[in-house]
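hiii so um. not sure if this is the right channel but i have a protein structure encoded as tokens and i wanna go backwards to a sequence. like what aa goes where. can anyone help
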């Protein structure tokens, strides 16, 4: 089979504009720890993991295999209304949950919390549906641009600086989600 060629002949994994922040091995170890904590926190509870599409897909797939409890999964997809490049905090539900969450313990799984506007609105929406508890697990926390300072992230993978990161589910214009590590995309930063 012919290899997919990019114009400069670099592969997605060796793109020179990528600066690795967290390796696949570091990520694996951190997720194991998170899984152990979540397993002990949710003993005897009916846990539903709610993944926020699309960025959380890889984190969720890895994390759920480190949680040693009976659980179910569901997904939501939301789009933030942006005013130019600035998030306004309004979200439109593109795909809602498949099942009710009344009486369940919900753990929302997100890729990264930045301003916190999207998540705050999403948690408000879910908050009106009668769940026994709703908590948030975010793979990355980028605290510097946070507008919703009161947003609590119950489980965080890593804290990142205020730079544009990709990989492990996170994208730049749809690309780089398949990288097994987290990297700063330096070309995205020089463009803006
Ligand atoms: P906010 O917290 O409402 O600003 O939005 C967070 C969303 O913005 C995340 O779910 C990502 O989709 C996206 N995002 C924020 N920072 C980054 C980044 O550094 N890389 C990739 N996506 C990002
Ligand atoms: Mg997202």
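sure thing!! here u go:
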């Amino acid at each position: 089979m012919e290899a997919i060629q990019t114009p400069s002949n670099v592969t997605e994994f060796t793109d020179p504009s990528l600066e690795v922040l967290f390796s696949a091995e570091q990520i694996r170890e951190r997720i194991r720890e998170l899984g152990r904590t979540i397993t002990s926190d949710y003993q005897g509870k009916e846990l539903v993991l709610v993944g926020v599409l699309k960025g959380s897909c890889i984190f969720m797939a890895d994390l759920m295999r480190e949680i040693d409890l009976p659980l179910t999964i569901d997904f939501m997809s939301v789009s933030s209304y942006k005013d130019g490049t600035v998030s306004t905090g309004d979200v439109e539900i593109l795909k809602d949950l498949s099942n009710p969450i009344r009486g369940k313990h919900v753990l929302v799984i997100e890729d990264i919390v930045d301003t916190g506007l999207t998540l705050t609105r999403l948690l408000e929406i879910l908050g009106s549906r009668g769940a026994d508890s709703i908590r948030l697990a975010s793979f990355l926390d980028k605290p510097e641009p946070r507008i919703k300072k009161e947003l609590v992230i119950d489980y965080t993978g890593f804290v990142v600086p205020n730079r544009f990161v990709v990989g492990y589910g996170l994208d730049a214009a749809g690309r780089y989600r398949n990288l097994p590590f987290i990297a700063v995309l330096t070309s995205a930063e020089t463009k803006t």
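oh and The longest helix spans residues 24-41.
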